[in-house]
Amino acid sequence: MERTVFYISDGTAITAEVLGHAVMSQFPVIVNSFTLPFVESIERANEIRLRIDAIYLESGVRPLVFYSILSPEIRDIIKQSSGFCQDIVQSLVAPLQHELGIAPSPEAHRTHGLTPSNLSKYDARIAAIDYTLAHDDGISMRNLDQAQAILLGVSRCGKTPTSLYLAMQFGIRAANYPFTSDDMDNLVLPPVLKPLQNRLFGLTIDPERLSAIRQERMENSRYASIRQCRMELAEVEALYRKHNIQYLNTTNHSVEEIAVKLMEVLGLRRQ
Amino acid sequence: MERTVFYISDGTAITAEVLGHAVMSQFPVIVNSFTLPFVESIERANEIRLRIDAIYLESGVRPLVFYSILSPEIRDIIKQSSGFCQDIVQSLVAPLQHELGIAPSPEAHRTHGLTPSNLSKYDARIAAIDYTLAHDDGISMRNLDQAQAILLGVSRCGKTPTSLYLAMQFGIRAANYPFTSDDMDNLVLPPVLKPLQNRLFGLTIDPERLSAIRQERMENSRYASIRQCRMELAEVEALYRKHNIQYLNTTNHSVEEIAVKLMEVLGLRRQ
After folding, report:
1. How far, in Å, CA of B10 to CA of B36, rounded?
2. What is the pLDDT of residues A203-252, one digit of tens each?
3. Among A68, A72, A90, B87, which one is least packed by beta carbons within 10 Å?
4. Residue B106 neighbours by CB distance under 10 Å
5. Average per-residue pLDDT in chain B?
6. CB distance A16 to A7 below 8 Å
């Protein structure tokens, strides 16, 4: 079975899309999806309504529509389309209104927007990205005591994407420090990191996966060989254990999962 | 009015948190929130249930609980708590089941997880982050034809965070190119960018905001002066217009909004 699905919002539509994906993934349906952000005018809404209606007329099957729109006028246009419309936020607001015993105030709220009230938080997030870039891959060891998290690991185990995600999504200043093949003869924890032990978080990965990732970068190199990968990982894991550094095997985890696990372990609160 | 709110998930809880925030922001309630990711065991669920019950007993007010948990056993424990529980995904699944006429398959799905089926997409996303870092701030002009988007703008107008967000969230290879104060005497579009015009996207920003951001970095410098900011922005805006480069004023837009607008303008599809 195939269905056309629309994710529509007056903002970025990121929330509508993520939630809609989660819902649709529970059904054995082939999804042909369209994401339509910034639907902020009557004209644009009418265009979309016509588009939904045209698909219904042509296919005889109602498109599914997941939407989140604040303005009642614009929302009503979408709801009047022939699509099967689901308001992702309102479906939760209605029962909550009953529980709280107060009416929702239809105040402009943009989940992924910039408002005077969240500007300083936003600036902190940009500052965290700056910090993280400046402290990527051990580039700078200065001001390391300002890091909220310091990721350790061998080359290509996921340090950089995780650090950037921590900064981008949660505004966390994340530094990362690489252990290279040159370090392996006598692997020690750099003295500068010792006093920061409660912010250290080690990454490891299965040697087979690491070797595959490194092959992409440098085919048939010693760097990418399974033997080298196995040796480097054994060394760093021994180091983590010796210094009681908490660590995670990233093989089956996404950047989001690694970031959230790290925050749990280091006791970092989401902003 | 103050309420305790829980965001609970067997995954990262990012979706529960984002949607829960959107819902709660519609009510004039002071929220004291806790995000509990990776609730994957009966023991952990029972702990949380006790915690919810304790808050209810102590305060006499039911905590609000937004949750998304796949396992029926674990889900039921949370539902049996004294919290006001809202299943963020199921509340949309039920009506959809009726519309589609098929039962949902309770297959393990992790929105922000790594599965064999999305591994290649995930690798592409990591490759996009690598590409974007290698092409940040004009560091490398090699392989620029592999960029899906090239952001232009003066220092501190939002190029780097937006490029990284495009790569991180949407797997888009985004390069960015800075115009510096040295370029201003004779501002031209670099020859290497001319054949790539359909991938260029200009950023601009209000001089007052740019000056404030630059002050944070270099206080009382010429670089941060309002006069310098005004001059640089006037020059780049003239360049954008001359070459018909689409551009956006980022002053009141978040990184998410800039990224989504850029994708709309350049016709890039979300992955």
Report:
1. 9
2. 999 999 999 999 998 999 999 999 999 999 999 999 999 999 999 999 99
3. A72
4. 11
5. 93
6. yes
CB B18 within 8 A of CB A169: no
Instruction: Please answer yes or no on whether A62 and B99 come within 8 Å at the CB atom.
Output: yes
Tokens of B181: 């104060």
Q: In the structure, what pLDDT confidence band is assigned to residue B101 with cuts at 50, 70 and 90?
A: very high
User: Which residues of chain A have a CB within 8 Å of the CB of B17?
Assistant: 270
CA-based nearest residue in chain B for residue A157: B126
Which A residues 158-217 touch B at CB under 8 Å?
Answer: 160-161, 164-165, 168-169, 213, 216
Using a CB-CB cut-off of 8 Å, the residues of chain B touching A84 are 96, 99
Q: Does residue A100 belong to the interface with chain B, where contact is any CB pair within 8 Å?
A: yes
* Minimal C-alpha gap between B174 and chain A (Å): 15
| A176 phi, psi to nearest 5 deg | -145, 150
Chain A residues within 8 A of B215 when measuring between CB atoms: none
Could you give the ipTM of this predicted complex? 0.90
Task: Write down the residue that tokens 């060891």 correspond to.
Answer: A141
pTM of the model: 0.91
CA distance B74 to A79: 35
Q: Say if B89 is an interface residue toward chain A (CB within 8 Å).
A: yes
For residue A105, list chain B residues with Cβ-Cβ distance below 8 A.
Answer: 26-28
Of B162, B164, B128, nearest to A164 by C-alpha is: B164
Q: What is the pLDDT of residue B114?
A: 75
- Contact A134/B at CB under 8 A: no
pLDDT reported for residue B113: 75
Query: How far is residue B149's CA from residue B173's CA, in Å, rounded to a whole number?
Result: 7
Q: Which domains are seen in chain A, by residue range? A: 2-100 (3.40.50), 117-266 (3.40.50)
In 3D space, the residue among B121, B53, B126 whose CA is nearest the CA of residue B271 turns out to be B121
Chain B residue with CA closest to A136: the answer is B133
Q: Which helix (H) or strand (E) holds A265?
A: helix A255-266
Chain B: nearest CA to A207, how far in angstroms?
17
Distance from CA of B154 to the nearest CA of A (A): 16
Structure tokens at A57: 């007329």
Do A208 and A230 meet the contact criterion of CB atoms below 8 Å apart? no
How many CB atoms neighbour CB B120 within 10 A? 9
Quickly state the pLDDT bin for A49 (edges 50, 70, 90): very high
Spatial contact of A42 and B119, defined as CB atoms under 8 Å apart: no
**With left for phi above 0 and alpha for psi between -120 and 50, is residue B249 left, alpha or beta?**
beta
